[in-house]
Amino acid sequence: MEFKILKKSKKSRARLGVLKTSHGEVLTPSLVPVATRATVKTLSADEAKATKSQILISNTFHLHLRPGEKILKSAGGIHKFMNWDRPLMTDSGGFQVFSLGFGRDTKVGKILKIFPGVHGEKDIKKNTQPKFLKITDDGVTFRSPIDGRELFMGPRESIKIQENIGADIIFAFDECTSPLAERAYIVESLKRTHVWAKACLKARKSKNQALFGIIQGSHFKDLREESAGFINSLPFDGFGIGGDLGSSKEMMRDILKWTIPRLNEERPRHLLGIGYLEDMEDVIKSGIDLFDCTVPTHYGRRGIAFVSGGKLNLNQSKYLKDKNPLDKKCICMVCETYTRSYLCHLFRAEEITGMKLLTFHNLYFFNTYVEILREKIKKGIL
RNA sequence: GAGGCAUUGGUGUAGUGGCAGCACAGCAGUUUGUGGCACUGCUAGCACCGGUUCAAAUCCGGUAUGCCUCC
């Protein structure tokens, strides 16, 4: 992998770049649509390409469970397996430490929405374990969400699996922490994540795949700074910024402000798991090159379409009589072909085609939005 | 013509004298490195008229409607 910065903004930390891999180039900043189990849910690979998606991210933990990395390896790697010839990343399984652990226990996501009342006694204290998995200095003992069997994954296991899966860019195994964790918990967790980061570099057998290190530290300034400094000092090919991002857009901006200036400018920066439309400009201005997000696909399957004025809930009966396209300004296949009325009908009738069409539109819409932001950096207005 | 049985939100049902419950539909909201169709609210009902009772969807009488049986 090679990363070339084409232009640096004079107004912000934003930069325009190109990421070169053996499966082609990615113009950055770029959205990375999520293909957890080697598919953008509801779309074929050709359809995903037609949404202007340049690169996808799949998931080590989920592919390990099904179909297993042996199948992927014998298929000639994930690109061939899923018929996607553009660049691909795999997330390491670090997010599942959270989503199947404290995230599942507390039903709180990585961004804390309700502030008063949640902090205090319910905080996750140092040395506590989630209900359904066990985190030690060596790695994590998970319970399979499929059949309940135990499985262990640590830095070495994750890297080995990711090498067999064969994406262009892989991530270090980390612990994504909960926004409810107290400082003392984060201090311990960060130590682990840092030890694991080194272990991942050591476990890597070849340099055909780029390996990104992940910065943690929750919403604590000094811990984020420490993590950024430490991960930056290691020979990673790029950076992921992970973990909880506070409880407001301001906190997310602060966390990025503490972190990014400590990272080597030559290496790409990926913000893990963020990407509402309203977040994108801020995130890009703070110096992020790549960001993945389930929102366009997840919301699409639930009937929410993102359009110029905001979002539409196509489950609402008022759209049944609406003969307009989702978005008059959008030139995607869905907007050029189908009415809101028809899409509304599909959702109300629970026809799976509705999910596919909204997934398509949302990805096209998000990718176009980022394209416009790239154009703005080029013109010097962002 | 006579007798029997039934009638509970829009739909399907639970409730044998003590706050009328459930499911679906309808309406609205939530979803940020995806545990695949989720979650959270809200709306809406005892066919009608009388009687018994502290208290009736529930017991009694009548009316309406539907189904069944007999002449």
TrEMBL record:
Pathway: tRNA modification; tRNA-queuosine biosynthesis. It is an enzyme of class 2 (transferase). Transmembrane segments: none annotated. Zn(2+) binds at C330, C332, C335, H361. It catalyses: 7-aminomethyl-7-carbaguanine + guanosine(34) in tRNA = 7-aminomethyl-7-carbaguanosine(34) in tRNA + guanine. GO terms for cellular component: cytoplasm. Binds 1 zinc ion per subunit. The active site is at D91 (proton acceptor), D292 (nucleophile). Its cofactor is Zn(2+). The keyword Zinc applies. Its EC number is 2.4.2.29. The keyword Cell membrane does not apply. Residues 273-279 are annotated as: RNA binding. It comes from the Bacteria. GO terms for biological process: tRNA queuosine(34) biosynthetic process. Residues 13-380 form the tRNA-guanine(15) transglycosylase-like domain. Keywords: Glycosyltransferase, Metal-binding, Queuosine biosynthesis, Transferase, tRNA processing, Zinc. Homodimer. Within each dimer, one monomer is responsible for RNA recognition and catalysis, while the other monomer binds to the replacement base PreQ1. NCBIfam families: Q_tRNA_tgt (TIGR00430), tgt_general (TIGR00449). Catalyzes the base-exchange of a guanine (G) residue with the queuine precursor 7-aminomethyl-7-deazaguanine (PreQ1) at position 34 (anticodon wobble position) in tRNAs with GU(N) anticodons (tRNA-Asp, -Asn, -His and -Tyr). Catalysis occurs through a double-displacement mechanism. The nucleophile active site attacks the C1' of nucleotide 34 to detach the guanine base from the RNA, forming a covalent enzyme-RNA intermediate. The proton acceptor active site deprotonates the incoming PreQ1, allowing a nucleophilic attack on the C1' of the ribose to form the product. Belongs to the queuine tRNA-ribosyltransferase family. This is Queuine tRNA-ribosyltransferase. It comes from Candidatus Harrisonbacteria bacterium RIFOXYD1_FULL_40_9.
